[in-house]
């Protein structure tokens, strides 16, 4: 263990700074997200949009599934990465109204790694794959949109028709969905 | 009753500090091997040593009292909060008449008045309001915080003050961080020597994760009163948005609204146990504070400050946990540094560049070809004039498109100069690297 001889100096207010000057050191969250974004390895069905390329903490993810119930659709998710990333997960919302058992009509997404199972070792890429998986395998066991989940469980044909109806733009029950086909 | 060492006469002074003199002017079996007994030690502690206490809450009140009574005379304190009624049971520097006032200011006034010779300087602000120059002026920083974000921020700040010469840490740039934390009957005290021992970021996964419930449980199969409260907080509030603002846990109107709606939901699902206090607890993430735990942890922290300031004894190495839920348990262990820690493993490397007229693409070529880096497809960002800038990022199509123009711009045009820091992410390294530009021949007119 060192002895801090250096402590025994008189410190002065306004001591001139060494040459790093007035630069702010990037926060750990900033360093980590830079790495995450630079290493994004998107499947061919996914794309990102950065409205302001200087702000890596706010962006959109577009998923266009090429198989499954949602094939041909185009779904946009907003990502907001907070100052406590990666200790806390980013906030992700679905911006496209979608008929889906795990996504409600306000855009809340029920994906375990977005809440209770988030770990700092996970990355933005993990979330991208998680979201893509939701479209391939909608899960009626943990529903957020209960009606959709019940239909999926009891009548897959009807569920498929409902998804198609919603994606083409139209009513499923009393809920109107905007067209989101590519 | 005599005030503690109130008189200024030499006899009184002699008496007031005689116990410290025994420790600081004599050697002993538990001394630090390099300890040199001398009156200079006490002199430094009292006349030169400048401390910063972050947080004037439960731990902060204890810390300031302990440090001031120990002889430290120049103490600064930062706190952005004001005093609330519920603080008074343990934050003993505050009285009922102080409610609504700045914690830092009231605490500073109390200590400066009560303990002669000690001067506490209050800062009623956020830690983020101060820059490097401010933090560099302290010998030791002591934190009694309730937030991980704030801990990470001050940790990052102290690490950014480190300077390296040829990759070797310059110890005179090191400011130790003594961090205390409590949660009910549990607490911890730790000594962080930035760049030398494990930092906050190294041990980030030790912090308990926030309690979260699966969204689908909250939405469809609530079983606990907490599920109903979370439902209102996460889903119903944004849907109905009664005041068109985000939830403010300190606004009784908000808490009341959440309480009523959570009640309705609980009745619907036959769940019992919703109370106003539980709602407050869930919304604000309140963990009951225990005064005695704060006292123990603050005392441990103050002792470490004393050891570091005087070198009289080997400091805590480096993490002490305390638990008095059943009896008393403590354990001290050496938290290890994380090799790839995002904060403290960052030793900035310099990269040699001909000068400010070099283009960004030239810099990228250097990063890819220089044997020191050998990168594949680096993404570069920087902080320029306090704002984050993405200079170039090849892997993300939408960013690449918008930043491609920068490649042909000179470093000068981009606002980069000799000594500028850049963040570089590349697949060849587990972390984002920090590099410092070093121009080969700065033009004469830029010399200072």
UniProtKB/TrEMBL annotation, chain A:
The protein depicted here goes by the name: E2 NEDD8-conjugating enzyme
Q: Report which gene this protein is encoded by.
A: ube2m
A Pfam family it matches: UQ_con
Query: What pathway or pathways are given for this protein in its record?
Result: Protein modification; protein neddylation
Q: Can the keyword Signal be found in this entry's annotation? A: no
Q: What reaction does this catalyse?
A: [E1 NEDD8-activating enzyme]-S-[NEDD8 protein]-yl-L-cysteine + [E2 NEDD8-conjugating enzyme]-L-cysteine = [E1 NEDD8-activating enzyme]-L-cysteine + [E2 NEDD8-conjugating enzyme]-S-[NEDD8-protein]-yl-L-cysteine
Could you confirm whether the keyword ATP-binding appears in this record? yes
Q: What is its EC number?
A: 2.3.2.34
Active site, per annotation: 110 (glycyl thioester intermediate)
Question: Known InterPro entries for this protein?
Answer: Ub_conjugating_enzyme, UBC, UBQ-conjugating_AS, UBQ-conjugating_enzyme/RWD
The family this protein is said to belong to: Belongs to the ubiquitin-conjugating enzyme family.
A GO MF annotation of the entry reads:
ATP binding
> What are the record keywords, sorted?
ATP-binding, Nucleotide-binding, Transferase, Ubl conjugation pathway
Query: In which organism is this protein found?
Result: Cryptotermes secundus
Instruction: List, for all copies, the residue spans of the domain called UBC core.
Output: 28-172
Automatic annotation (TrEMBL), chain B:
Has UniProt tagged this entry with the keyword Transferase? no
| InterPro entries xrefs | E2-binding, ThiF/MoeB/HesA, ThiF_NAD_FAD-bd, Ub_act_enz_dom_a_sf, Uba3_N, Ubiquitin-activating_enz, UBQ-activ_enz_E1_Cys_AS
User: Which reactions appear under catalytic activity for this entry?
Assistant: ATP + [NEDD8 protein] + [E1 NEDD8-activating enzyme]-L-cysteine = AMP + diphosphate + [E1 NEDD8-activating enzyme]-S-[NEDD8 protein]-yl-L-cysteine
Has UniProt tagged this entry with the keyword Phosphoprotein? Answer: no
Q: Name one GO cellular component term.
A: nucleus
Database matches in Gene3D superfamilies: NAD(P)-binding Rossmann-like Domain, Ubiquitin activating enzymes (Uba3). Chain: B, domain 2, Ubiquitin-like 2 activating enzyme e1b. Chain: B, domain 3
Q: Which PANTHER family match?
A: NEDD8-ACTIVATING ENZYME E1 CATALYTIC SUBUNIT, UBIQUITIN-ACTIVATING ENZYME E1
Specify the protein name: NEDD8-activating enzyme E1 catalytic subunit
Supply the source organism for this entry.
Cryptotermes secundus
């Amino acid at each position: 263990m060192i002895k801090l001889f250096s402590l025994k100096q008189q410190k002065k207010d306004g001591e001139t700074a060494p040459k790093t000057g007035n630069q702010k050191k990037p926060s750990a969250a900033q360093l980590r997200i830079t790495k995450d974004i630079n290493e994004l390895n998107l499947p061919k069905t996914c794309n990102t949009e950065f409205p302001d390329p200087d702000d890596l903490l706010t962006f959109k993810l577009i998923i266009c599934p090429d198989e499954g119930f949602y094939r041909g659709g185009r779904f946009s998710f907003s990502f907001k990465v907070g100052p406590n990333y990666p200790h806390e997960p980013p906030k992700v919302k679905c911006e496209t109204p979608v008929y889906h058992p795990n996504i409600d009509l306000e855009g809340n997404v029920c994906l375990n790694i977005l809440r209770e199972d988030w770990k700092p070792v996970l990355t933005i890429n993990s979330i991208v794959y998680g979201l893509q998986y939701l479209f391939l395998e909608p899960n009626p066991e943990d529903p957020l949109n209960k009606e959709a989940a019940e239909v999926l469980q009891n009548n897959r044909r009807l569920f498929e028709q409902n998804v198609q109806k919603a994606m083409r733009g139209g009513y499923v029950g009393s809920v109107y969905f905007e067209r989101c086909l590519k | 009753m005599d005030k503690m060492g109130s008189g200024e006469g030499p006899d009184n002074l002699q008496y007031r500090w005689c116990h410290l003199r025994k420790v600081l002017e004599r050697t002993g079996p538990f001394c630090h091997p390099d300890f040199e007994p001398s009156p200079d030690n006490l002199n430094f502690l009292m006349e030169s040593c400048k401390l910063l206490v972050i947080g004037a809450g439960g731990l902060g009140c204890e810390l300031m009292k302990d440090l001031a009574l120990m002889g430290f005379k120049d103490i600064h304190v930062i706190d952005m909060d004001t005093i609330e009624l519920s603080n008074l049971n343990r934050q003993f520097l505050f009285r009922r008449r102080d409610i609504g006032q700045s914690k830092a200011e009231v605490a500073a006034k109390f200590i400066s008045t009560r303990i002669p010779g000690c001067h506490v300087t209050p800062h009623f602000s956020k830690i983020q309001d101060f820059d490097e120059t401010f933090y560099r002026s302290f010998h030791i920083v002591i934190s009694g915080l309730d937030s991980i974000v704030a801990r990470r921020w001050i940790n990052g700040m102290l690490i950014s003050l480190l300077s390296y010469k040829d990759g070797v840490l310059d110890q005179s740039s090191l400011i130790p961080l003594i961090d205390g934390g409590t949660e009910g009957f549990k607490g911890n005290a730790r000594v962080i020597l930035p760049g030398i021992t494990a930092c906050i970021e190294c041990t980030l996964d030790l912090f308990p994760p926030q309690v979260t419930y699966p969204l689908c449980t909250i939405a469809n199969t609530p079983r606990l009163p907490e599920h109903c409260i979370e439902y209102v907080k996460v889903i119903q509030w944004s849907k109905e948005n009664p005041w068109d603002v985000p939830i403010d846990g300190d606004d009784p109107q908000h808490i009341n609204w959440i309480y009523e709606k959570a009640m309705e939901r609980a009745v619907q699902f036959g769940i019992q146990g919703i109370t106003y206090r539980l709602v407050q607890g869930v919304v604000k993430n309140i963990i009951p504070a225990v005064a005695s735990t704060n006292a123990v942890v603050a005392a441990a922290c103050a002792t470490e400050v004393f050891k570091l300031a005087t070198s009289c004894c080997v400091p805590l190495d480096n993490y002490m946990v305390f638990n008095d839920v059943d009896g008393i348990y403590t354990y001290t262990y050496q938290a290890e540094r994380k090799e790839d820690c995002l904060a403290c493993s960052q030793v900035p490397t310099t990269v040699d560049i001909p000068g400010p007229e070099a283009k960004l693409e030239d810099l990228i070529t250097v990063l890819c070809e220089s044997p020191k880096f050998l990168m594949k497809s680096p993404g570069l960002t920087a902080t320029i004039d306090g704002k984050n800038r993405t200079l170039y990022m090849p892997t993300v199509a939408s960013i690449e498109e918008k930043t491609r123009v920068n490649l042909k711009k000179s470093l000068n045009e981009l606002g980069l100069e000799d000594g500028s820091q850049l963040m570089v992410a590349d697949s060849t390294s587990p972390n984002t690297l920090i590099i410092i530009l070093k121009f080969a021949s700065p033009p004469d007119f830029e010399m200072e």
